[in-house]
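Here comes my example:
=====
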Amino acid sequence: MNFMLRFNAIRTGYLLGISLVLAAIIYFFASNWGGLDRTVKIVLAAALIVLFYGLSFVFARIRAIPGQQAFLSNIFLVAGCIAFGVSVSLLGQIYNSHADSYGLFLIWSVPALLLSWITRYNPFYVLSYVLIHLGIWLYFYPTMQSASYSDLESLSIAGVFALVNLGLFLFTFLRRLSSIPLKYISFIVFHIALLTMTNSFALDKYGLVMNIPCIAVIAIGFYIFIKIRLSKTLLTLNALAASAFAVFKFIELAEAYSSSLFFVFGLIFVALLLTGNVWFFRYLNRLDKSSPDLSASAAETAVPEERGSEWISKTVSRMIKMVGVLIGSISLIGLITITANVNHTEYVLLGVSLLLMLSMIVIPESKLDSVIRYTLLTISYITGWVAIVWSDQTLLSVLYLIVSIAGWFRSIGKRQLFFAYAFVNLNLATILFQQFQEWERWNWTYEFIIFSLFFVNAVLYGTVLYGISYFIFKTELKEHLRNSSLFFSLLFLLWATFFEDVFPHSYMLINIFYLVVVTGMVFAFMRLKQKSAAIMSIVFWFIFIGFKYYDLLWTLLYKSFTLALLGVIAFGITWWLDLRTSHSGKAASEADHRSFSFMRLSPLLITIVIVLQLGIISYQTVRNETLLATGASVKLKLAPVDPRSVLQGDYVILNYDISTPPSSSMTPLQEKDWKRGKVKVVLSPGSQGVYIANRLYQDGEKLANHEIVLNGQWDGSRIQYGIENYFIPEGTGRTVEQNAHYAYIRVSRNGDALLERLAES
């Protein structure tokens, strides 16, 4: 056990180090540093691909780190695929291709799919899944323009996502493809897409009809996961889908038929739902006990550890309880608000809340079903908090806080305790806000509240950690208080990293403090064998790295150097610890038995994929350089604006005069047949050498010597030419907006264009 903890801690250290280095590379390229010309950038991008794949090959062959070389080889293989995607985005930045275009992600998905097929490695499966879905999403909803679709078109787009994920789920469920993450992710996204198709707000004509197949799919899911192939996890997710559908439909009905009678209906529905919940998990208990009655196919296919119905009952109960909480809360608040003939409805709400909460605290556990108890308790939390915010009375807020703490002491179960603890924090925040909302500067009040909540939770964590929490006698409560106080301490400290300077350089100091503390906690919890705390710290560590992509005082360039240095240090320290741990022959042999290198198993196939990636980079480079060298130079008038790309950094969106040409020259575009699609525009030089849109090109038409054909895409309101993005060094967007009035482009003989430079005249 001790060996396994060290083993996992070392792997975590390597992952942190490699993640920091990859983040540094993305930051560096996104900064668009003017100190490198495009040739150096292209060579550097190709070198990074070779470097990561080369490291994968090296670690597959050497024995420098017994027990971890296979793991590192595989991780560097994944890093190489990520480096390829970064390189493709860099080419888009260099040659000013569309920012975050669907083509970027689809090209990136090709080697990811091939490596998934070769290695059967879950990280490649997940990477391929994410890239393909991003590509499809950006195809229909590009960042460059606001797509406008009819109800039928929107329904069809959601249907594409539903069908893709249904097919993927069936492949994994029927074991044609072995990937547990893909099975669950595809199932969840399938139901999200299906629920989207029932949206009567957005799809007025089709949403109501789509309720029928959605209900049918959920019902079929329950039948399959109970009768045909018993699966606790899929049954839970199916119950979650049913809960989400019920809540969404209730919101739609509440919007259309809001009245006191409807809210009474909602409360009756909650009662029926809770009763049905009890009957349902009792049935599951009987189903599990009578497993011989299951069909032969179910008995053969059911996973042994999934036969216990207790876990299923609890999980389904939680899902249905969630529905009861939402619907019951909305119904109760709505009913009281509509029917109460008093001037201060908030006091009625607070009275009902306190009555419910005290009843649930006083009534013994044995006298009331736990599902009903916690549903009513949660409703009382929500309505009570709404009431104290509405009333804005500190005394009532303190009273409610005391009752909430008592409710936490009476709660049983991790989720119920966490929910109650979260409301205690929310109540405390409300009291602090009521006390200090009169401060002249709102940001001081806001920051004071967050720091106070961090301090309270940190003190509680330290109190429990060092065993001086004498006021808590139950071991379960102590364990929960330790985990919950740690979670909220990290949450509020992360929140504090987004504050502006309270005093000089406080923003930077808080960010450095957070990174150092959380990194130290990861290794400390690993060493102390506190698995849940270690996982929590790792999650917050990655959240910080993700959020701070742009949100720091430093530029991306300086952040890149800092992250690279931290990555090298983390990797070096982990390597040193790994070498010390690996002196044990037992450790090395056991680790070797656990893992193997894909680079060692399939070197030829992986080499072909690497060559393909380098070929794609080379082809794109040669194609763009040829167009720059041989294309006709054209000057266009423009008006830029300044957004930002996730992978490619800062850029300006260019709005050309030829993007919205006069209707007199583009009459066919106003016709119904030209609603969307490819067009060819004939450009001719006007005053000061600026080209203007003259007409649409007709096949076979002869052009004058001074005329040029430019390929475009008509979206119903304007023409996109693929030259609307111009990438710039970080922080220079405002200067470009003010000074750039013209764009110089290169146009090939077949009408493709490439943006060359911007100029004032």
